[in-house]
Amino acid sequence: MQTELTIPTQSRLADEVLREVGQNVNLCYQCSKCAAGCPVSYAMDYTPVQLIHAIRLGLEDLVINSKTVWLCAACETCTARCPQGVDIAKVMDAVKIIALRQGRKPAIPRVASFYRAALGNIKTWGRMFELGMIADLKLKTRDFLKDAGLGMKMLRKGKLKMFPSIRGARMARRIFRRVKDVERNRA
Ligand code: SF4
Ligand code: SF4
């Protein structure tokens, strides 16, 4: 189980992860269960267990420039399997947050663009309006033709709504404002 947040660590990056998401990577004893269960590890440059180890060693550039955190699908299989209660999915989030805060270029820019487009969309409409999100993503990536055929097929079958619903938009904006306040107070 995850224990108190005050366990001293050697690595500055591990400390930052601890501060950001409350996960102590030094609890890891390298059993590799996280990597064994990860459905995306085949495509990662470092498996989850390797990434956790690199954070413990303070290999900041390697961790922050790795594709692993951007490929993580946040499925939480690793988190559910870790015998030490390390929430590895949260650690992946922490590394992304730290990378963006430091102004580093995401190792897979398309994924970062997707996050930005999805979050902006939810902030505006209160829930996902897929067509708007796709349009924003295309503008951000300038990749206008990718999956265009699939998109047309989904439109024809009515899987993509033409207009957004604005139910919940005000509440979403309040949540985003609140998060901004929390972040400002923590800075
Ligand atoms: S499952 Fe947990 S303890 Fe095992 S290697 Fe992964 S992070 Fe470390
Ligand atoms: S949360 Fe990420 S790292 Fe963990 S198993 Fe899923 S894809 Fe892999």
In brief:
The chain has 187 residues and is mainly alpha-helical. The protein is built from eleven helices and no strands. Helix 8 (109-125) packs antiparallel against helix 9 (130-141) and helix 8 (109-125) crosses helix 11.
Give me the secondary-structure topology:
Layout: H1 12-21, H2 33-37, H3 48-57, H4 60-64, H5 68-71, H6 77-81, H7 88-101, H8 109-125, H9 130-141, H10 148-156, H11 169-186
Helix pairs in contact: 1-7, 8-9, 8-11
Describe the structure.
By secondary structure, this protein is an all-alpha fold. It is built from 11 helices and no strands. The longest helix is centred in the C-terminal third of the chain and has 18 residues, at 169-186. It is globular and about 50 Å long. The protein starts with 11 loop residues before the first helix and ends with a helix. The chain binds iron/sulfur cluster (SF4) (2 copies). The site of one iron/sulfur cluster has 14 residues, from α6 and α7.
- Global morphology: globular
Distance between the termini: 28 Å
Number of H- or I-type helical stretches: 11
Q: Which sequence of SSEs, written as H and E, runs from N to C?
A: HHHHHHHHHHH
Strand content: under 5%
Structural class: mainly alpha
Biggest pleated sheet: none
Number of strands: 0
Mean pLDDT figure: 90
- Multimeric status of the protein: single chain
Rg, nearest Å: 19 Å
Measured as a percent range, the helix fraction is 55-70%
